């Protein structure tokens, strides 16, 4: 219980500090809660710190308030000044002497340079000043005339180059037009050749198809012709047989009648049919011709 009262008293002293009072109340309350104080103890400490006078507040060093104070950066004391001995004074004297010697040498070099500058001044005026002075009026006119001539020459050269460029551009344009026309002609010829080639290919294709058709139809035509000839020959043979039978049935009674019948002339059968009929009947072993049959008694 005494420890809790001591914590409350420390909290009152902590809250009574002017620097702590500048901080927000929430931060002060959170800090006291982190130290283990309850809400009731914090409210009591706040109320007591509000009533405590600043004159009656004990010092920070005599109270345990130091454990609640914010810790600032540590302030270190300045180191003591070391004592100097004769070696330090000797080094200082040596450094000072070196600086003085350097300043003296620098002054001597500056004096030498100034003397050399005074000696070189007439030569500088003699050789450099003429180039630094502005040119005379005659020299300016000569230079101006030379520049004008050069400008005129450059302008003439530019004009000539421009004319040559225009001529070259025209020539290139004409050549381009000629090339374009030639290309168009070549395209036309190529299209015509392509169309002619396609036409010839189509014709060759048609001719090939016709030849193939004729080649396929030729055996059939030959076979049909052979069949027609065979049929004609068979019909002719039948007619000859009929004629022979007719002649045999009408055989005359006397030789005079037979001679008169024979004098009437041959039957009206073409010779090529007779030849074809004889050729067709000979292999099959048919009867002799009509003349022999008619003359048979």
Chain-wise SSE layout:
Layout: H1 2-16, H2 18-21, H3 25-34, H4 39-51, H5 86-127, H6 129-132, H7 137-249, H8 255-263, H9 271-284, H10 290-295
Question: How is this structure best described in words?
Answer:
It is found in: Peroxisome membrane. This is Peroxisomal membrane protein PEX14. It comes from Ceratobasidium theobromae. 77% of the residues lie in helices and 0% in strands. It has 297 residues and is an all-alpha fold. Among the domains are: 66 residues, Arc Repressor Mutant, subunit A, CATH 1.10.10.10; 93 residues. The C terminus is likely disordered.
List keywords for this structure.
single chain; 297 residues; mainly alpha; Arc Repressor Mutant, subunit A; 10 helices; 77% helix; elongated; disordered C terminus; translocation; WH-like_DNA-bd_sf; Pex14_N; protein transport
User: Regions with pLDDT < 50 over 5+ consecutive residues?
Assistant: 53-78, 260-267, 278-297
Radius of gyration: 76 Å
How much helix is in the residues? over 70%
Q: Figure out the total of helices.
A: 10
> Beta-strand percentage?
under 5%
For the sheet with most strands, the description reads: none
What separation lies between the terminal Cα atoms?
187 Å
Number of strand segments = 0
Secondary-structure element pattern, one letter each: HHHHHHHHHH
Oligomer: single chain
Family: Belongs to the peroxin-14 family.
Biased composition (Low complexity): 278-297
Coiled coil: 144-178
Subcellular location: Peroxisome membrane
